[in-house]
Design goal:
Layout lengths: L2 H5 L7 H12 L8 H18 L7 H19 L1
Helix pairs in contact: 2-3, 3-4
Length: 79
């Protein structure tokens, strides 16, 4: 799953939408009741925030791709 699927939204750079989706998703993955789900959700939120803060420029696509790879590696190591 991608960070966006974990957050339940389409790919976006809208920080308010990312934060709102994270808050809603927290209801499903409470840290004490679902620690693994919470860790993945928190990572998805962190990576999505980084994605949203990438400025348009020559290396934009490269930075976005590196974030996708970073999230995938995080999930692989922590699941």
């Amino acid at each position: 799953m991608t960070m966006w699927e974990h957050l339940g939204i389409e790919e976006t750079k809208d920080l308010n939408r990312i934060k709102s989706s994270y808050a809603k998703s927290l209801r499903l993955h409470h840290p004490e009741e679902d620690p693994e789900g919470f860790q993945i959700l928190k990572a998805a939120y962190d990576f999505a925030q980084k994605y949203a803060n990438i400025k348009d420029g020559a290396d934009t696509k490269k930075e976005e791709l590196l974030l996708y790879i970073g999230f995938a590696n995080y999930c692989r190591q922590n699941m």
